Amino acid sequence: MSPQIRRSVFSWKNLVAAFLCTLGIFSMAIVFTLHFRPLYYFDIDHLDIPATSGYSEEVIRRNYDELIDYNSISGPSRLTFSDFMMSEEGEIHFEEVKRIFLNIEYASFVLVPLTLLLTAWQIRKKNAPFFAVLSAFPTFLVLIVGSLVALNWDFCFVLFHKILFRNDYWIFDPACDPVITILPDAYFLHAAALILLCVLAASLFSLLLFRLLRRKISNSAK
């Protein structure tokens, strides 16, 4: 990396723009994973959820779809399961989860277009240093979060809930909220892995753009 590019990497404009784009990448990855139902459908067989829960695949799919529909912007205002009863605490928890997802989805409506516009603008300007930063930011976060998850997923899972929720309603009793039997921890681990993979893919794409633009700049300077 030339001294000129190295200095440009740490310009405040590149740092701020890359930070905003990183937020956009993460929001897009989370929203995509939330709505990527094939991941859960795969886990129904992979984790043998019918055997561990005692419910048929048809029942599992139907109630999972109702949960995902509820967490969508266009979904119903109140959660009801076709085959599961739900405690008052469970209903409150799902309302809190829905609020979090809706905030992320609403934020993505601003952050994702902003990310695309900033990316297109930086390509047009042939601003290679910007893409070096944009590749580094998400990769650094993926390495940190991915390492923690790999070392102790159970700790991360509990810590995540304690940070986001001010109560213990997320600790379900299967007798009162049987939906928890079809939502094994391993599925949430797979969802977290998919989010990180999506972010990493965006980071690698940014690195590719950096190398392409740097090559163009070098060729034009000759």
TrEMBL record:
The chain crosses the membrane at residues 12-36, 100-118, 130-151, 187-213. Signal peptide: none annotated. Keywords: Membrane, Transmembrane, Transmembrane helix. InterPro entries: Lit (IPR010178). This is TIGR01906 family membrane protein. It comes from Faecalicatena fissicatena.
